[in-house]
Amino acid sequence: MPRRVFVSHASANADVAMAICNGLEARGVSCWIAPRDVAFDGTYGTEIMKGLRECDVFLIVVTDAAAESQQVEREAERASHYQKRIIPVIVGSSEPGPRLEFYVAGRQQFPCRSTPDDRFFAYLAGAVRQGGGAEPPVPRAPRTPEAHGIPPASVKLLAAAAVTAVILIGAAYMYSRSPASGSNTAVQTRNSGTPSDAPASTPRENGTPPPDSAARGGARSQSPLVPSSNPPASQTAAARADSREGRASTLPPSAPAPAPAAGASPAATVNGAGLRFVTIPAGTFQMGCSDGDTACRDDERPVRRVAVPAFHMSGTEVTQEFWEAVTGKNPSGFEGSRQPVESVSWEDAQDFVDRLNQRGDGFRYRLPTEAEWEYAARAGENTAPDLAAVAWFGLAQRSARSSRPQSVGTKLPNRWGLYDMLGNVAEWCEDWYSPGFQRVVRGGGWDDDSGALRLSARGKATPATKTYAIGVRLVREPR
Predict the structure, then answer these.
(1) pLDDT above 80 for 155
(2) Among 33, 188, 210, 451, which is 20 to 30 Å from 384 by CA?
């Protein structure tokens, strides 16, 4: 008999989970449950993923322990990814909590006592047998006029009256749009703005690029760019609100505007260690799979037009020197004061920006949203950069035979003066990739191949992940 139900539970609730499994199997519904069904010679995680893929239904035994379990949360995320039917069994007065709420909300729930009875098992087995797909729709009686006691003759009169009303409303609308009425002017004014914004170009900080940049062509970022016109105030405010929440503010298509110019911003200095910032101008861009990119994945689509307000972004990844000046510690596996800090989790990054914000220097620091990151990485250009010129990747480009991150700013910047947006270390973003489970990571790292360094490529990791391939880049805004 194929196993139809994967029983997900916290280890502390193995007894009640096994009781549910036995009760279903006694009624002809086969289950997969750990550790019973983990193969003797198999890897635990691999066996769990195999069980998830092969089952039709994902049953969560929701208890207080499960609500705090990262393992149950991971299993729920995978079940959602595999588009399995999810059935929550709520034991006693337990709540799903923030970890499981996303996967439980809106679904039919099955209350269960700590000792399930025959009536519960019969009810649950019947629900499982309804099918392996989505919850079946509730049949509804057809909504006909006769069902509500309205005679057919009255229906014809009502239909004729409705047609007449539509004709009169349409005529009034067309008159309101005619030149004689004068009302169309307001409609044209509301839609006439160009959805991009770019302040005039300003000199780089201290008038010079970072050290050694002249030899690497650092002056490239100072090429003159034509600023575009300002968007309507209401549109800009809405876009700013969306961006601060990490959401894409989608705008209707229009002709591409000239790329806006970036400028310098005061450096952040802590205990003698500095971090240079660049002012990224407001504007719009096509977020997602680039034109002609055949390597795009499903999570890079659909492509949408996004408005991004102006913000300040650090010109390099946060260095170990600057991280240690703020926190007093250097967690990196590959040490070097000018190398990017790594082996820091998303949670570590949040603690870091909290400490930085406590200084009260007039700015609020944070991680970039995913939209801000991609907008800054593209820097107003539609073509992919020459990776060998701008990025350390593929085990630091193999030819150098240096299998480690490199000092920041030792490759060419993009046209907005940002170094190492691609490669060296990947960078945490503020956004969730999968709610309550994984955060977005962008840019690829020194140990990645070129596919991970595509401008629209999306990475992900749990907030507690610490690896030598992920670091931090900051965004700030005036308080």
Answers:
(1) no
(2) 210
